Amino acid sequence: MNPSTDIIVAVATPPGLSALAVVRLSGRGSAALVEGLCGASPGRLSGMRRLLAMIPGVGDAVVLGWPEGKSYTGEEMVELICHGIPERVSRLYRTLLDAGARSALPGEFTARAWRNGRVSNRQIIELAAEVETGSPSGRLSECAMRLHERISHALETLEGSIEFQEDSCTGSAPAAAALQLAEEAARSLVATTHSLQRVMKVYLMGRVNAGKSTLMNLLCGGEVALVDPSPGTTRDGARREITLMGRRFLLVDTPGFGGEGIDGIALDRVTREITRDDTVLWLSPEGENPPESVEGSAGRVVLVLSKSDTHRLEGLRVSSVNGEGGVTLRDNLLSTASSPAENSASEILTLLEHAAGFVETEPGIAAALLREAEVKAVEMTGLRHDVCAVERALSVLCVGK
Amino acid sequence: MGNSTVVVVGGGHAGVEAALAAVRVGASAVIVTAEPSAIAVMPCNPAIGGVAKGCLVREIDALGGVMGLAADHAALQFRMLNLSKGPAVWGPRVQADSGGYPAFVRESLTTAGVKVVKGMARSLSGERGRFTAVDLEDGRSVPGDAFVLATGTYLGGVLFRGGERWPGGRAGGLSSISLERFLSGLFHVERFKTGTSPRVVTGTIRTGALEIQTAHTFPFRFSLESEEPVRNSMLCHLARTNERTSRAVLENLDRSPLYERRIEGKGPRYCPSFETKVVKFPERHEHPVHLEPLSPHSRLSYLNGLSTSMPQDVQYRMLRTIEGFENAEIALFGYAVEYSRLAWGEFDMSLRLTGTGNLFAAGQILGTSGYEEAAALGLLAGANAARTAMDRDCVVPDREESYLGVMVSDLVRKGIDEPYRLFSSRAENRLHLRQDNAHARLEKLARDLGVLGGRRQSLLEAHLKQYETARELIRAAGLEYLCRRPETTPADIMGKDSGMGGLSPECVETAFNDIKYEGYISRHTRRRKAALEHWSLPLPPGFRDAGISIEARQAIEASRPGTVGEAAELPGVRASDLEVLTLLALKNRCST
After folding, report:
1. How many CB atoms lie within 10 A of CB A20?
2. pTM for the structure as a whole
């Protein structure tokens, strides 16, 4: 596959009515393709050129051309700017597809830019983190780089004490000290990955009076939702942000299924806002499965057997009366909330702590653990051989779509 | 088959192991050397082994070589380096009798029927595809079926001390100038540098003022063939330099051939001259100097740690600043030597030279430094030369199974830009590559190379059988958990009533250490396997346009690796390049 002869196209601006919309093409032949469409003479778009064009069926557009090596992707690129009327944009898009371009995959423009050396691994990973968390992740990569440096230093010092025991008068003390510095850096990286977490939304759902609000209060440790044993007390979703082990969750209490009138409308509204990134805790004292509308909405649905003090069903049993299941439920939420970055950071910390115990008596083992930690740290900085880190990052990037 | 002949140029540690290995494989062997009296001498320090190097000596023994046996025989003092740091990084090392060691090796050569031809090699006859003889300066010619170059520092050797400069491979030796000219016409040749320390008259040192370097007295032998553990019959001493020693160097730096840049070759970073230490670590003045007696029959001692090429008067000034050395007499001054070696890419993993059919090389000509490195490479080159002479395929060692494999793949795949010394940290699988299990690890390579004679074979079999028994007994007695405890030793295990009393302690030790580290070793193996999955992907054809670095592209175009993993081992291929290559390769796999 020669990537540059494959022309990709994407609408770069968000859907909906806007003043202007931008459609981008990348790949060798992009310029010729657009020149053909608007009847311009071949070569008009070569070099860094701007062109006012009339595209049949679409109307006026401003066309910008970039030659190979000078564009975002590093390939020949064209951008078309037209009025942001959704129908017009989609006509333009279809026209370009008919002319031989193909729809870009999510993140494909950036992937090409990366492959052509126009953006670095680190930029990609930082961009991805920002897309995911909404906050700039310069801090994360800074921390990861420092950690990497310190692990490498600790490893060098340790290896030196193994290879040159005859020349070193200091024994393993410098290695132990270097390792301690690395541990500190790992701890601060873990803290940073915590703080950069996006807030995870958790919806408490179930039939009317399944114990949702009681569970909400149990998790929050106080009165948040108005609780009443008579069904249908919760009308609007009560929201409360909680922090478990340094991680932020937004708990959303919902009206129960099976309620009438205004309850049904409120429930509909809440259900519509659930996305694949969210978690639903489906509460049922009877072990009843959630309806399809719930099953299909969230990325993860956890079946919770509420009011476990009243039955003997097996599963994730939770009771607000005797407190059963509170800890299990928290752990369950925490286990799915960790990001890959956070997992790596904790793994590195564990490896370093483990290694510290071996510096004196078994430096061979300590070095093996440090090497593993070093590889993981490198993966985090994105500077070296972990393809997965970059692939993962590319997959969340939708730049240009 | 007995009429196939391997001709080895050079009689140093690489040359003798090459000749002996060739004989063990089934060929006859001839050593061509200008100085038969210098065969197997130790021109630098009188010691064999060390961290990683000691493992290499045991590997040489596992492949039937002579170094371990000779070192056991000539040992004057034994130390297990890193003794307090866990058996994974132990490095056995002996001070060896500098007269007894070469005498033992020469006897082995005689016993093996290796012929020694005195003469200076000038060139090779025949064609690159098949050489037929080594031609000597005096007009004679030594015919053979395969050839090993083990020229050490003699190939274009030039010695330096202060402002002096003279040809030679070592003090008192000649320099191989015609051969260097001949080889540089066929191969790309580069210059390396190394050096040695002054030898002092032991009686002129006040050893009472020095620290005594204690020996380790527990039984140890490098070779399975040695019947007795090594002896400890001599004292070594440790001195330390001071600020005045550094000053003596700094004030005369303009008289150093190194810093005057008259020596162009690159020197070893890890075995630096004293002047380099002083310049590189200006804040440190206390450098250890080991006083190592050359032999019970010699009145001289070697000064380990004081390699220098300063002029004679400066060497005296430096030395006499050290406590205990106020009246020291120097018998042989230190010097630096610059020599030629084959550039990267001129030989493959079997140690055959590129584009040749039957020419091999080993030792410093391949860029290494150290007796042990040379000997191990010599053994491999000699065995492969004999196999080639006898129409058998060459055998290549595995990086995961031996330090020999680590060294060969580093030299061939990674390339080096300074004299290469083996370190334990060069091995990814270090917890497995230990000195205690060398015979078990190398058993397969020994069999593939065909380098074990009948006696060695039966010794090895008996050894491995005991080792297996020890493992079974430990498991059967449920003592594995004890092996994993840091405070337990193999002796504790043997003390238990587990039926191991009759086994050799060496075999129990190996079984014990295998169990001790097996969790970490299998962890490494799993991770390596995962990496290998990507590594085995074929190199993507579109790599040129993929945005890899220019160095990486050139390296790949030059050596045309078949897989991403092979590309990974090329010099100039950076990790970020690999990322791109792997991703491309993965995409290729998806689209086909």
Report:
1. 12
2. 0.74
